[in-house]
Design brief:
five-stranded parallel beta sheet, 13 helices, alpha/beta
């Protein structure tokens, strides 16, 4: 039996079919649109409603293990984000594994990250020979290999390897700028070059010669070393006695400190220019001896946390606050810590821009359409911009000279080749 209220309700809808239809639609529409909203979320392996799993290879052991601080800072940054709710309500699962700066081990570890761990993308692996060893594999799998920490010019090749980008000055960009600096300041100089005998070093040497153009004969000595060498003493002696009065020091890791110190021991008073990967106060200049590094020239694109001139900068203060709270045992004044911090910010920015479409192709799209993302600790006047047909991130850099205690900026930002 229906009560009086139920009878009245049934009669109301029987007499007003349009109203009943509208109410029925109102009941159905949320289901339809709700289902559509859920369908808009797109995931590839490594992503879900709750997690984004990303991978990385890093030399926690081996000849360039000092760079592993990059990953420790990145991990600290992601942990901080996770504690605040993650990115778009998803926690970052950052799987960083040791490859000892050994390409064969990089291959093994990268396959593990992709095939066993199921990462969405590889972010910020370190090294030219190591990252090149897996580039073809990752591109065939269409797994993004992004913001690689390598200065090889080979990372700007979107036609052949669209899934691979870097977060460094290209070796050809940096060496071209060094060549122009030498031509402007020591046009009659004799140049000696120390470089790593791998793809990065060879790219750098070629870029230097291209930068000199018809003045390439200024290079009077080219000395190569291997990352497995115990010393570079022989190469340094050869460079000094070549008669070179300009020393282009294109080394990495411990070899940067060794070469700066050896030049001082040999009393070789050449104008010395180092690459941006060799400006760390903690890992390069202090082991080399600060007095030995006085007068060294470099191009940089990050703020130097040791520079008294930027201590009141809001980005520098935010960086120090982050390091103190999240990584108190790490050296906040180490420029490698700064690079790790900026890299983590950029990775987070890319993932945030992906929204609910966490697919390989959308991650790549966001990583190759960067337009001055808000990254703290980039040097004044330096921005990151790229496009699907030009993956080079930096168009400008700052030229600096080490005065024995800190890096001092010389002149306005310089424009870089290729942008």
């Amino acid at each position: 039996m229906l009560n009086d209220s139920a009878k009245m309700t049934r009669a109301f809808y029987r007499n007003r079919p349009q109203t009943g239809l509208l109410l029925a639609l109102c009941m159905v529409m949320p289901l339809v649109f709700g289902s559509g909203a859920r369908a808009e979320k797109k995931y590839d392996t490594g992503a879900s409603d709750t997690e984004i799993k990303i991978g990385q290879t890093m030399p926690y052991s081996g000849p360039v293990s000092a760079f592993s601080v990059l990953s420790r800072v990145m991990n600290g940054y992601f942990k901080m984000l996770n504690d605040k709710g993650g990115i778009n309500h998803r926690k970052i699962n950052f799987v960083s594994v040791d490859d000892s700066y050994n390409p064969s081990k990089t291959v093994e570890q990268t396959r593990r990250l992709v095939e066993d761990e199921g990462v969405l993308a590889i972010f910020a692996p370190l090294g030219t020979p190591t990252s090149l060893a897996v580039r073809k594999y990752l591109n065939q799998k269409k797994i993004p290999q992004l913001v690689v920490l390598s200065t090889s010019s080979q990372w700007n090749n979107p036609a052949e390897f669209p899934y691979s980008t870097s977060l460094s000055l290209g070796a050809d960009q940096e060496s071209d700028g060094i060549a122009r600096y030498i031509l402007a300041n020591k046009p009659d100089g004799k140049v000696g070059v120390l470089y790593q005998n791998d793809d990065y070093g060879k790219d750098f040497l070629k870029g230097l010669k291209d930068g000199f153009g018809d003045k390439a004969s200024m290079i009077v000595s080219e000395q190569a070393y291997s990352a497995s060498d115990a010393t570079i003493d022989q190469q340094m002696v050869s460079l000094k006695y070549s008669g070179a009065d300009v020393f282009v020091n294109a080394t990495t890791g411990k070899f940067s400190a060794m070469s700066i110190r050896k030049a001082a021991e040999l009393q070789w008073k050449a104008l010395q220019i180092v690459t941006a990967s060799s400006i760390s106060l903690k890992n390069v200049l202090q082991p080399a001896g600060l007095d030995n590094a006085k007068g060294v020239v470099a191009d940089i694109y990050y703020k130097d946390p040791t520079d008294p001139q930027v201590q009141n900068d809001k980005d520098v203060q935010a960086y120090f606050a982050f390091m103190k709270e999240n990584l108190p045992s790490e050296d906040a004044k180490d420029t490698n810590s700064v690079v790790g911090y900026v890299t983590a910010q950029l990775v987070a920015h890319i993932l945030e821009k992906c929204g609910d479409e966490l697919t390989h192709d959308n991650v790549l799209k966001q990583a190759t359409t960067l337009q001055s993302p808000p990254l703290g600790m980039l040097a004044e006047g330096v921005t990151i911009n790229n496009s699907p047909d030009n993956y080079l991130p930096f168009g400008t850099a700052l030229r600096v000279v080490f005065d024995g205690t800190k890096w001092v900026t010389v002149g306005p930002p310089i424009k870089l080749k290729g942008k």
